[in-house]
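// run 5 | inverse folding | seed 20
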């Protein structure tokens, strides 16, 4: 029978697909592929696909040639420096975490196989690697290692770059590579897609010498990619729950008057949406606010103002709170009931350069912070702040005190005093800039503190950026948690303080500054100096005057005055009846040690207001730890990993009736405090964080640091 030509479009399509499938299943012949590659480079067979070269490879060769890739490259010429790499890894933290299990399972089986497993981001930068040691060492010679860039624009045809370009799993074997220097390798890569929107997040790749090539490598790597995608779904689910938990444990979670809200994740996608009464959210297109929809690009929105301006116009009647500590975890958009007066809106936008993420608070109001109490140490601190603020010198002040004692109030007091003093001479309002040294990654410190010019590093803003010193010029700069300042940044800070000029990164221009510096810490900086964690010369420079804020437990009857203050404040803000405390309750307040200090006390009063059905507070209404009674025993499982054992050790803590834990270091003391708080709150992490006076993200880090997992005993 003579074959008939295709007589319709469907037959033609079917024939083309069959032809392509045949071309993709070509048996690999090293000599034939090398010969085809050489002819391709000379131009003799550039347009016609050789019979012995797969379509996906030939098309990639074309892309590589059109991009000007040098076919004689011996390695990828692109390799990120430490700063750029750490910034990139931070952006892909979730992907890296989601790959942990897969890398662990496959990686431990690669020893002796001459194979290595790598993970790249969507730009082709390798952000994770594991496998056979000798192969990993060999990979460094061609920059097939963490920090190496393997997109087609950098090194031409390869499994990582070609998988990114095509969006499909692909293997590239030996001579099929475009560049001569990597033809001694074989690799198989599969794209990893975002479960939310299907976009490619990165590639997982198996690489090694040509002898590791097996057809089942593609199946292995495709399965690994699917496993990571499933892990991403779980990570996203957990992140959404954490966001919701952060929201309901923040002040923005106290919705009133029929407010609605939208919670955005770290990418600016809708994680949750709940309409209130008459908030007009229902009038917005469901596609715009459906779960998973991209509402804004959070990478371009570093402040609440940025978020507000990026929103669709029909959503710009909300207040905004940013969720997160060291980085943006997400944001909450709160939509007021349109029938409610404007007074019910927590923040009005656009505001005057209030940057929640960077803790940049240009508070230009004249209201002094209300520091409640008559404790002599507190009054002495207030007097010292006022004297320094009104002096013409640029004396640096160091404020010491435990977490939650209210050190930030004294920094704000300094600013208000400076403002009042300057208002007598000028109408210009001095700025107040706060930088939390414990909330910024090490790699971003220089740019945040000193500023940068355009193109000074990857990620630098197009028009450059002023640092905190420039922003605070003429006013007050508060460096909170200065004990967390990286050691390699400290000499540059010292230079600025001594010379009174600042140089932006990438620029030699000196910018004069004139400001008052207030630093605060909950660490013993003298001890940090002795440990080598803090420079002695910088310590002396920032502590011309040292002010110590006493912990709440040492302030006697101030405790009752502060309780009255918060009781009145919450009553006024929420239109509630004031709480009434029995004499026994007041005595318990005076007896309690308040490990979370004023912050813990405020959280307690807020909880009592919200949770109690009555207004008369008795001892039985207080948390168990403040009542002073015994608490239920909870078995906590700690995972201790050391060189000799990976076994799990159970630790039962009975703070009220059992033997006390042995505490030898500050870390032991902190761990004991966390364990006791978990017991007191029966494992409710929201309540644990409130008792300790810390945020939920901080608590999560403490649990990870001390390997604490909750497990209730019967």
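// decoded
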């Amino acid at each position: 029978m003579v074959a008939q030509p295709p007589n319709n479009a469907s037959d033609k399509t079917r024939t083309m697909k069959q032809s392509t499938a045949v071309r993709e299943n070509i048996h690999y012949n090293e000599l034939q592929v090398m010969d085809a590659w050489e002819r391709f480079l000379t131009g003799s067979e550039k347009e016609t696909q050789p019979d012995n070269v797969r379509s996906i490879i030939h098309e990639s060769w074309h892309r590589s040639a059109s991009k000007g890739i040098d076919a004689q490259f011996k390695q990828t010429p692109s390799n990120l420096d430490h700063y750029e790499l750490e910034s990139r890894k931070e952006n892909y933290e979730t992907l890296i975490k989601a790959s942990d299990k897969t890398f662990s399972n496959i990686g431990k089986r690669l020893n002796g196989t001459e194979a290595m497993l790598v993970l790249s981001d969507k730009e082709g930068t390798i952000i994770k690697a594991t496998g056979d040691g000798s192969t990993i060492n060999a990979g460094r010679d061609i920059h097939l290692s963490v920090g190496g860039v393997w997109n087609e624009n950098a090194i031409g045809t390869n499994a990582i770059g070609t998988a990114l370009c095509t969006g499909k799993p692909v293997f590239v074997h030996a001579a099929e590579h475009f560049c001569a220097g990597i033809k001694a390798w074989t690799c198989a890569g599969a794209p990893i897609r975002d479960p939310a929107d299907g976009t490619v997040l990165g590639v997982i790749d198996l690489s090694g010498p040509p002898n590791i090539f097996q057809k089942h490598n593609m199946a292995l790597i495709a399965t690994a990619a699917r496993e990571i995608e499933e892990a991403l779904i779980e990570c996203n689910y957990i992140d959404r729950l954490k966001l919701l938990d952060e929201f309901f444990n923040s002040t923005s979670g106290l919705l009133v008057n029929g407010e609605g809200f939208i919670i955005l994740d770290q990418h600016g996608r809708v994680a949750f949406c709940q309409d209130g009464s008459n908030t007009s959210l229902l009038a917005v297109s469901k596609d715009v606010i459906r779960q998973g929809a991209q509402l804004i690009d959070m990478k371009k929105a570093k402040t609440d103002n940025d978020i507000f301006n990026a929103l669709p116009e029909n959503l710009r009647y909300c207040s905004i709170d940013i969720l997160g500590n060291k980085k943006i975890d997400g944001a909450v958009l709160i939509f007021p009931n349109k029938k409610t007066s404007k007074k019910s809106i927590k923040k009005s936008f656009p505001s005057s350069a209030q940057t929640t993420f960077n803790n940049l608070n240009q508070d230009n109001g004249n209201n002094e912070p209300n520091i409640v109490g008559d404790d002599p140490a507190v009054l002495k601190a207030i007097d010292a702040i006022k004297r320094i603020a009104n002096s013409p010198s640029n004396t640096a002040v160091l404020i010491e005190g435990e977490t939650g004692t209210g050190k930030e109030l004294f920094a704000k007091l300094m600013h208000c005093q400076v403002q009042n003093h300057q208002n007598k001479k000028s109408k210009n309002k001095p700025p107040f800039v706060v930088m939390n040294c414990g909330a910024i990654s090490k790699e971003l410190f220089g740019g945040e503190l000193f500023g940068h010019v355009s193109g000074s590093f990857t990620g630098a803003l197009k028009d450059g950026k002023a640092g905190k010193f420039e922003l605070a010029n003429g006013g007050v700069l508060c460096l909170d948690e200065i004990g967390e300042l990286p050691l390699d940044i400290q000499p540059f800070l010292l230079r600025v303080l001594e010379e009174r000029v600042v140089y932006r990164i990438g620029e030699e221009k000196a910018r004069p500054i004139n400001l008052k510096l207030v630093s605060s810490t909950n660490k013993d900086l003298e001890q940090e100096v002795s440990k080598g964690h803090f420079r002695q010369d910088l310590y002396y420079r920032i502590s011309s005057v040292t002010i110590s804020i006493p912990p709440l437990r040492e302030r006697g009857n101030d405790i009752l005055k502060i309780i009255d203050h918060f009781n009145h404040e919450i009553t006024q803000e929420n239109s509630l009846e004031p709480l009434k405390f029995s004499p026994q309750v007041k005595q318990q307040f005076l007896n309690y040690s308040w490990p979370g200090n004023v912050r813990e006390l405020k959280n307690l009063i807020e909880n009592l207001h919200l949770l109690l059905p009555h207004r008369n507070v008795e001892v039985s209404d207080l948390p168990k730890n403040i009542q002073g009674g015994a608490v239920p025993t909870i078995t906590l499982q700690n995972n201790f990993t050391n060189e000799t054992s990976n076994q799990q050790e159970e630790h039962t803590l009975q703070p009220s009736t059992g033997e006390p834990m042995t505490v030898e270091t500050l870390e032991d003391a902190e761990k004991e405090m966390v364990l006791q708080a978990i017991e007191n709150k029966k494992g409710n992490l929201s309540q644990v964080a409130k008792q300790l006076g810390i945020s939920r993200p901080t608590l999560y880090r403490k649990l990870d640091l001390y390997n604490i997992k909750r497990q209730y005993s019967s």
